[in-house]
Amino acid sequence: MAMTMVLRLVALLADLRLAIGLLLLIAIASGVGTAIPQQEAARFYLERYDASPWLGLFNGNRLLQLQLDHVYSSSWFLALLAWLALALLLCSWRRQWPALQAALRWVDYSQPRQLSKLAVAETLSRTAPQHSLDALETLLRQGGWQLQRQPQRLAARRGLIGRVGPLLVHAGLVLLMLGAAWGSLGGQRVEQFLAPGRSLELLDRQGHNQLTLALDGFSVQRDPAGRPEQFSSQLRLLTGDTGDGSGPGEALLRAGEISVNHPLRFRGMTLYQADWALAAITIQIGRSPLLQLPLQSFPQLGEQIWGLVLPTRPDGTEPVLLTLSNEAGPVEVFGADGRSLGQISVGGDPLEVGGLPLRVSAVLPASGILLKRDPGVPLVYAGFALALLGGGFSLVATRQLWAIAEGTGEQGRLHVAGLCNRNLTAFAAELPELLTRL
Q1: Domains defined for the chain, CATH in brackets
Q2: What is the DSSP string of 161-228?
Q3: Prediction pTM value
C-alpha cells in the first residue's frame, strides 16, 4: 500500500500539467517582484502602501507579512523553485531518460509485414533487391545516417541528438533554479553613499576586511536645464588589511569607472552606479575657519533637496536653514521664521546674515554605489546555456528507417518503412525521393 502511494505521488509530481502550473505561478510571482520595489527598509513599505494599498488590497504590513518586499528570496518563492526542480527531475527520470534509452536501442524488424504497420512504408519491385539494398545503404551512409546491417535487411537512424534535447532543457532549468536559490540565500547586496576621497571596507562573514573600495572622483552630467543625465564614479579596489594594523592595504587590484548602466565586475562582485546625493557643504561664517558640515535630505521640501540648520551665534541661537538641490548651487538661506534671506553662490560672494558674512566655499557630492555579490550567477548562466542548447537539439527530428530485401527475379521486392518523431509529413515526402535515387 505504501509503495502504491509513493508511486502515485511520484506520478503526480512528474505530471507535465503540474510543471506548467508551477511555471505559471513562478512567472506571476516574478511579475509581482517587478511591480513592487524590492529589498527596501520596512518603513518604506509602510509609508508608501499604508496610504495607498497595492492593488487596493495589500497595505504595508500585509506586504511585509507575505514577504513581497523580498519576493525572490522569500520562503514561498524558493519552495516553488524547489517543487518545480523536483517535478522536472522526476519527469526526466520517468519519461525522458527511458525515451532516450529506447532510442539508443536498435530495433530489428525482420518481416515485411512488420514494416507495413509503420507510419511511412513503401514497397518496390526489384529484380535484384539485394543490390538495391546495398545501394540504399550507400546513400544512407552518405547522408549521415547511422546503420546496422544484416544480410537481407538494414536499420538506420538519424537525428538521435534530438532525444537528448528534453533532458538538457530539464537539466538547464534545474541548474538555473539552483543558481537563483543560491544567489538569493548566499548573495550580498549593499548600497552605500561614498564621497570622493573616502573609502569603504568590504568585510566577509567573519568580519575580516576582504577589499577596500576607494572613490577617487565623482561627477554628475546635467542637461541644459540642470537635470542630471548621467553619474560617473572613478573607483579603485585595493587589498584588505596590510597585516600590520596600519590600515588598508595599498596594492591595487582593479581600477575603473562606473556609470549608470555600465557596472564594474570583479571576482564575482558587481558594482553599480545607483544614485547620487550631496554629502557635505564647506562654509565660513565671518572670520571663522572653513567648516565642512554634513548635509541631510529634506524630502518634505521637495525631491532631491539637501540642507542643514546652522546657528549664527556662539550660543546656538538665531539659526538659519541652508538648502540646495545640486552641487553647483545656489544655496537658499531661510530665517527662523521661514522667510527667504537670499541666495549664496558656491565659491562666490558672501551673504550677510545676522550681521555676519556667510560664504559657501564648496559642496561635496556623494556617489550612491550598489554592490552585489551573487555566487549563483555562473550556475544561472550555465543553466540558460544548457536550456538553450537543449531547446536547439529538441528541434532536430529523430528519424528511423528499415529496409528488407525479399525474393529475386520478378518476385523480388524491397520493403522500406520509417518513423519520425516530428514533421512526419516532410519525412513522408523525403522517403520517395530517396528511393528514386536507387
Answers
A1: 2-100 (no CATH), 107-159+397-435 (3.30.310.80), 186-276+369-386 (no CATH), 279-364 (no CATH)
A2: GGGTHHHHHHHHHHHHHHHHHHHHHH-EEEEEEE-TT-EEEEE-TTS-EEEEEEEEEEEEEE-TTS-E
A3: 0.66
